[in-house]
Design a protein that fits this description.
single chain, alpha/beta, 7-stranded mixed sheet, 6 helices, globular
């Protein structure tokens, strides 16, 4: 069965696997590049990588309206519980959970994590999802780090990497990340939302083709990828 991923701009992804729907880092209503509003989203799970506003802005509203389970680290789950989110699944770095759609592992990320009211968001992270026989890595907001080689050892059908620079790795460091991860396909995220993270995705894709073995997949917001 195919796994369908839809890029909703910035760091937000919608993932459809069989009867299950997940959203990662929902930032829609205030995003200048999102192709839809949070009110149109219907999901079973909400994954949150870290506490920054541009990754959590619509998480509580979606989770509460859909009755979805919010998956994140302990601190973020506790914080969302105080915002009225009833269903949470707290994790911490390196842990793996078996959930209805498959498994999710919390991975390290080198970034910061403060929630909108100034509360600590704990450690930032990424996610490795295993669903319907596919293994997908969302690096989320991070710099490149050598343990990406370890993440890639199990084989990756897709890696999603930030390329915006300034606040995360940029295009050059993302090439190094791809070399470490060795995924079959790679997609860029966290770019072109605002001028400070503007990038030429076509130029990035050309670098991926010339310097790595991965197939680059560049989507417009709202674009879909099937694995």
């Amino acid at each position: 069965m195919a796994v369908e991923l839809t890029w909703l701009g910035h760091g937000t992804w919608l993932i459809q696997s069989g009867s299950h729907r997940l959203i990662l880092d929902p930032f829609l209503n205030e995003s200048p590049t999102a192709p839809c509003r949070a009110e149109s989203i219907d999901v079973d799970f909400v994954l949150v990588s870290h506490g920054h506003f541009d990754h959590v802005a619509d998480a509580a509203a979606i989770a509460k309206r859909c009755g979805a389970t919010l998956v994140s680290n302990w601190e973020i789950c506790q914080w969302f519980g105080q915002q009225g989110v009833e269903n949470t699944h707290p994790m911490n770095t390196g842990g793996t959970a078996k959930l209805a759609f498959g498994t999710v592992q919390s991975t390290i990320a080198f970034h910061s994590s403060t929630l909108p009211d100034g509360a600590s968001g704990g450690n930032p992270g990424g996610f490795v999802l295993q669903l319907d026989g596919r293994r997908i890595y969302f690096a989320c907001d991070t710099s490149v780090f050598s343990d990406m080689q370890r993440i890639g050892r199990g084989g990756l059908d897709l890696a999603v990497l930030p390329i915006g620079d300034t606040f995360t790795m940029g295009p050059s460091d993302s090439i190094e990340a791809i070399e470490l991860l060795a995924p079959r396909r790679v997609a860029p995220a966290h770019y072109n939302t605002w001028p400070p993270i503007a990038q030429d995705a076509a130029a990035w894709a050309a670098q991926v083709r010339s310097r790595t073995q991965a197939e680059p997949v560049v989507l417009d917001p709202g674009g879909k990828l099937n694995l």
